[in-house]
Amino acid sequence: MNLYYYHVADDVLETDSDIAVVIDVLRASTTISWALKNGADSIQFFSDLDLLKETAERWDANKKLMLGERGGKKINGFDLGNSPLSVTKEKVQGKRLFMSTTNGTKSLKKVQNVKYLFAMALPNRKAVAERIMSLNKKNVLILGSGWEGSYSLEDSLAAGALASYIKYNFNNEVNISNDELQASLALWNTWKNDILGCLKTATHGKRLTSLGDYDDDLKCCSELDCLDIVPTQFERGVIRAS
Ligand code: MLT
After folding, report:
1. Burial (CB count <10 Å: 0-12, 13-18, 19+), residue 135
2. pLDDT tens per residue, the chain (242 residues)?
3. Which domain covers residue 150, as residue numbers?
């Protein structure tokens, strides 16, 4: 199995991968994972806000929520921002979430034509890794979200965490196929005993901290292997639990 990692959507020119894993530790993929764990029916992701509103408009008002952020802040008129703590069972159960975030949903859109598309955060790292191993495909693309086209520490940390798990637990051969992923493995080995410290050091961790009380969000996003949810694209642009 060949594992590749790219920091941001714009780095992916084309892909012949069978599997794509999108990571946005702070916070879109963590929020997606928790929303599905708490019983959300599905998450439909958008980069274009007008299209999101137009599509959401056609849904039963009791069965939908609009969720998202720009620059880390909740979008005006939306039901929820992008906090994994806000997607409680009471709020999301049985609902479709129409979601748009600054970077995470852009990465999802970039690889939405791949056969198997998963969203991964640190809480469901093991669950996603086990799914990838069970599929046993040749090429796996891991895609971070970064921040407006630039590198992010926390997504690379999670890419390293994923690669590390697969490398040590998959019985077949695993190739760490680009330097970005080698660097992510080194990053993981440096910070694996202080994940929260890494998130607080990251630029986006600091950005969130500067916006207000985001300590609990950072803690939630730093938890490892506590969710058994594999957010999976079932139809183009729509993710469900599996
Ligand atoms: C993103 O998509 O850039 C993030 O999820 C931003 C955030 O922390 O809300």
Report:
1. middle
2. 999 999 999 999 888 899 999 999 999 999 999 999 999 999 999 999 999 999 999 999 999 999 999 988 999 999 999 999 999 999 999 999 999 999 999 999 999 999 999 999 999 999 999 999 999 999 999 999 999 999 999 999 999 999 999 999 998 899 999 999 999 999 999 999 999 999 999 999 999 999 998 999 999 999 999 999 999 999 999 999 99
3. 2-241
Q: What is the CA radius of gyration of the chain?
A: 16
Predicted TM-score (pTM) of the model is 0.97
Q: How far is the CA of 239 from the centre of ligand 1 (A)?
A: 17
Whole-number Å distance between alpha carbons of 175 and 39: 36
What is the total count of domains within the chain? 1
CATH code of 114's domain: 3.90.1560.10
- Measure 208 CA to ligand 1 centroid, in angstroms: 9
- Among 80, 82, 152, 216, name the best residue to mutate to test ligand 1's pocket (greatest count of ligand atoms within 8 A of Cβ): 82
Dist. CA 137–CA 62, nearest whole Å: 40
3 CA distance to ligand 1 middle (Å): 25
